[in-house]
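Sample pair:
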Amino acid sequence: MSAPAPVASIRLVRPQDMLVIDFDFYNLRPDPAADPPQLRRVDPAQRAYVVARFESQHVSEQTVYEGEPNRPAPGSAAARAVGPSRIAFVVPETVKTVPYSESGLLRWWQWVMRVVPAAGRPGGLETDLLVVDWLHLTPEQFATWDHAETPVEHDGRTELWHTRLALRGPTGRPAPQSQPTVRVVAADDPADEQEAKLFGALNPEGFDYRQLITLTNPPEPVAAPVDVGLLALSAAGATLDLDGRWEPSTSSGLNLKHWEHHAWLGRDNKVVLEQYGFLVPYGHRALLFTETKRTFDETTGVAYLEQRRFIRITEPVKAYGGAYGLPYGGRSFPFSELAIENPVPPDLPQHPEPLLTGRPDAGIWIQSIATGTDVVFVLRGTAATGREIRFTASLGFVPHDVAIASPEPGTVLREVIDAYGGFDRLVGPAPDPRRALDLGGQELPYSAEAVPGTASHPTQRLFWGLQGPLQRLDPRSDSPLFFPRMLGAEARLATMDTFYGPGGPVLLGYDERYLLTEFRGNPGEVYVRVRDSLEALASGEDRPVERVVVNSVTIGGIAMPNVEVGGLSRVLGAAGGNKESVDKLQDEGTITPKEYFDLKNQLNRAVLFGATFLANVLPDNEAGSDESLRIKKETTYPTNPKTGIPDVSRLPNGHKMTIDFTTPLVDFGPFRAVVGNNRAKLTLQVLNEVSYVEGTNTNKVTGKISLFELRLVDPAFQFVGVVFKDFEFSFDHDGGPSFKPGVSAVRFYGPLAFVSVLEDYISNAFDGVSVFGLQLKTYQEITYGEVRVGVTFGLPDIKMGPVLRVTNCFVTAGVIVPFQRKPVRAAFGFAKEDEKFNVTVYGFGGGGFFTVEVSERGIEKIEGAIEATYTLAFDFAQIASGLARIAIGIYFKTERADPDEADSKDEVVLRGYVRATGRVSVLGLISVTAEFYADLQYRKLGNQSAVTAHARLTISIDILFFHESVALEFFYNLDGSIDEESVRGRRGAGALAADEQPTAFADLMSRADWEQYCASFAP
C-alpha cells in the first residue's frame, strides 16, 4: 500500500557523528516562524505521521563454499545494496505540536511506532526494515528506538550515531537492556537465478527463506517472532544479532528450526540455518545446518562469506514399535530398532546428489565434501528377537515438511516413495548399490521366534525400499510418513545347505498374508516366500528354488528328498512347492509333499529306494501335526544367569538343524503301502548339530519305513514281492551307513508262481531251519551303492546210482535296492556264477547257473551259462598216471542300459567255448601238462557289434625243480567292430570258462585301508 504524498520533507544531516535521516511529515506542517519552531497539524481531525527514512542498511555479498577452489579475486566478489529502510510513527492526538528542532525530531519514544500488523508487504506508512538479504522485517507494536539526541564523544572521538531497537520501560522510555523481537512480513525474489546462487547466506540450495514469513506471524500454531539481541541502524549500515527458534510444524513448507543472524555495519558476519528433517530410509530425526561465516582467506587476503553445510543426527536410535502410521505393525522390516553408531558425519559438498534428479528441495544423499561420495554410516539393527545385526549403509536427508506430509498423489513424498519404493532401481542393467545392504552372512531373524533360530537365516544382502502408511493420515510433527521395508533378501537356507550340500543363495520376500495378519489365520505360519532371483520377486513370477541332491549318502542314502522350496514356515521350516502349495499351507495348515519333491526335471526328483519318486507315495499332511515335514534350524544361546532364558544378544553357542518327517504312505508303482490291514509309514530324521563352544560338528540320519511290500515289476506282469516288516537305516559321518532290513515274507507272482507252493515254508523259515529237506535262509548284502535282500533255499541232491547225480542246486529270490537313481530290481536265479550247480551222468559232468533281474521298466538283466565236461583218468602200474578232460560250454548275457548314465549302452553277449586239458606224470619226477582253449563270441554294445575268435595253447614241463611253460595265443575279428575300450571290457563279461586273471590283494584294499590296517598293529 503506497502512502500519500507527505506535506513536507526534510533531511537531517549531522556530520559530526554521521547522522543522516530523511523525515517525511504527514498532516504536519513545519512552522519555522514560531518560537520555537514547531510542526503543527494541518487537520486536527486526522492522524499525523512522521516517517524516518534511512539509506540502505545492508549489502548482500557473494558467498563461497567451503573448499571451493575458484574464488573471486580481491575486489571482484559480487555485492549489492538492498533498498532503504524506514521507521513510521504515529503522533499521538494529545500532541498538538512537535518541536521542529534537531532534538525534537529525535525524541521517537514520545511517538508510537507504526508496524505491519500481519504478514504482507509493508505500506508506505508502516515500518519496513531491510537489514538482511531478501527479507522485510517489522518490530513489535510497542517497541521504540533508543539513541542519543546529541553527538557523543569518548576521549576526543565522536561516536557514530545509531539508533537501537528497544522495548519501553515502565515510564514509556526505552529500556536499553530489554530484548525486543521482530517479525518477517514479506520477502523479495532474486532478480534471476544467477543472483539467487550468488547471494546464498539466506538462500542455500534446497531452502526457501520465505517460510520465515509464516513462522513469525499468526495464525501458524508454532509461529514466534525473532529475538533481537541487537538491531541498530546507522548511516554506515545496520548492526544486528537475531535469533529465531521454532518447534516442528505440521504446515506445508515449514522446516526451519533455528535462524541465527549476525551483521556489523551492514555486512553479514555469521548466518546459521537449522532445518528439521529425517534420514532416508530409516526415519531418524536429524538437522541440516547451513552455516555462513566471514572467514579470512590467507591466500587472497579477502574475508569471504564462506558457507558450509552438514548434518547432525538428533535421534541416533530409532525405535519402530508403535510408530505413527507404521504399516503392517512393522513386520515388513526385520528390525524393530536401528541405531546409528557414527552420529557426526563430515561436511556436505556444495551440491550433494539429490534424492530426485534436479530436486534438492525433496532431499539429498549425505555425502562427504572430502571424497564427493556417500558417507558410510555404521548401523546396529535390533530384530524382534533381540538379536543385533551390524551393517553399513548410505543415508539421505529429507526435509521435515516433505517427510510428514501424507504421501498422496502429487506430493513430493509420494514422488520419493515411488522412486525408492519398488524394484525399478534394483533390477535391470544399472542397479542402485545404495539399495542393497551387505549383512555379510549374519543370522537375521525375519519374524518373532517361539524357538530361537527357527526364523533366522544367514543373510548376505538385504534390499530395501520405501513405503507409506496404508491409509491417509494427518501429519504429526514428530513422525515421518515414510518407512523402510524389505523388498527382498539374499540369504542362505542353512538347513538346506547342510542336508543337500552348499547351494547358491536364495531370495526371500515377505509373505503378504503374514504382513497383514501375522500368524492369525495362518496355521502354517508362513512368513516369507522363496524365489530363485530378485527378478522373480520383482515380477511376481512363481519361481521357487530347486535344491538337488546328487549324492544320497549326505542324507543317509536310502531317501533323497530333493525339494522345491517356495516359502518358509515358522513351524515347518522350508515349505515346498509352488505358490498354490504354499497358499494351501497358509489357508488349511496342510502341506502337499508332492510339491516338495516333484520337480520339472525327472532326474532331480526325490526317490525312495532309488526308483520310486517319493512324492508319489506321500499324502497331504497337516502342518504342525506329528505327520508333517519339518526342515528347520534352531540356534542355542548362552543362558542369562539372572533370567534363566537364552540371551540372544550374545554370540550363539551353536546351531541345530533338523529334518523331521513322519507320514503314512500310499501305493505307487512297485511300492505297496497296504499290507493286510496295516499301512506303511515313513519316519525320517536328519540332524546336524554344531557346537562352537566344544568345536564339534555332528551329522546323523535315522529313519524307518514300516510294513510295506516291494512288488516287481508291473502291476499287470509281476514276478516277485518282498514284504518288509520294517526297514531301518542310519548314517553318520563317523560310522558311515548302516541298514537293517526286516524281511518277513517273499511272494511270487506270474511266471514265478510255481515257487508259491513253497511260500508257506519260506515265510516261516528264516531261522535257518530245514523244512521237508529244504534248507531255507535269508541273505543280505550291503554296499554303498545298493542292498540285496532275499531268500535262498537249497534243493536236495539227486542221486540215481552211478547213472545220475545232481548236487549244489539252490534257488535265490530277492530284491536289489539301489541308493542312487536306479530302479529297484527283483532277482531270481538257480545257483550263482561263483556257486554253480553240478550234474554228473556216468563219466560226463557239467553245471551252470542262471539269473534274471527285473524292474518296473521290465527285464534289466539275464545272465547264465551251461557246460558239459568229460574226464578220463589212467594209471600204468604206478609208473605213469594221467588225466584228460574236455569241456564244452555256452555263456550268455543281455543287460539293459542305465538311462541315467550317458555312457551306458544295451549289451548282448553270446559265447561258445571248448577247453581240453591233459596231464601225464612219470614216477612223480617228470610231468607234462597241455591245455587248449578256444572260443567264438558275438557281442553287441549299443549300435556296435562284433564276432571274434580266440584260441590259446599252453604246454608246461616240470622236471624235479625245473619248470618251463610255453603259450601260444591269438585273437581274430571275424566280423564287425567295437570301440577298443569296449573290446577290452568284454574280457570282464564273466565267461564261465574264460582264463581270467586272478584278483590280486592290491585290488581288494586301498592304500588308506592298508595304512589303517598297519596302524592297528603298530606298537
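The chain has a mean pLDDT of 83.
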